[in-house]
Amino acid sequence: MNNIEDLIRDALNHQATQAPPASSVHTRQATRQRRWLVPTAIAATMAAAAVVLYSVNHAPAGGVTVGTSEAPVDWSPTWMLPGFTEHNRSTAVDGSYAFTSWFAGPVDARDSQWVRLNTYPRTKEPCDDSMDGAERVTVAGNPGVWFASSPSLSLCWSTPTGQFSLSSYNVLAGRSEFIRIAESLRSAPRNPLHVPLTATFPVSDHPGVPLLAGIKGDTPDAPTMYLTSTDTPDGIYSVGICTTKPADPLGTPVPTRNTTGWWTRDEHNFEKLTVPVDTRWLVVTYLPTGGHRDPHTEALAQLANTVVAGPTPATPWIGGRP
Length: 322
What we know:
This protein has 3 helices and 18 strands. 10% of the residues lie in helices and 39% in strands.
């Protein structure tokens, strides 16, 4: 799963509809230099709030259609590192985890500094402390594990009902600051995150890796709703609805949705199809996994045709601090 994790991060850093990463990585996998997520779950003391999740149904054409439902995953820190503001809220479609991301700088910059607060309500086992360099710590009386391997830091701690974790990239902080964030977590107001977006993805090839759904952005007036399919047979697909036009070259014209979209592919074979949708922009992306290098222009156009988007919700939390 580590390779998929890294590919997802690369993909989402290349696209205008970048979603924070992707599927979970258990703490025992933290020996990799580039750790994008660490497993977590919500604590017993936190009252959960509803965030709109996604249920997966097999479509007649052999794809997977994503639609909405609700699950209790919301929570909030009351302290965060100076200069970091919230820019992403996302959840796995199966309800297995959720996360919120805090950035110091632009969300889509490849070298961004970020801190991710992860919750895993279904994870019951203790945090893994078997990796070289792991340190046992205590978080609000609960056992935890701290791990530092530049440029990544992670803190995982267990409660009687699950786990939390904090993960980061390129952040100048230490164990005491991470524990302070962890011990500041409190139950959040009941404020559902609605993502009125559906799409039909290719059939899953790795059913253990969930799809993702969420909203992110640099400013409250320019959010992007997105879905990311991390487990399709030949690569990683994402769809996003942007409220501002992506600053990309036009590329090759591709007919889709009764209009013309514009297809590009970079040196990493990362493909993007940008399509005007009323006053917004649909961005559909593909990153190959394994040896796939053929253009996926037709697949992207077909995926674009399946997207149904409601109004983009208000996101006053983007750019906010505790």
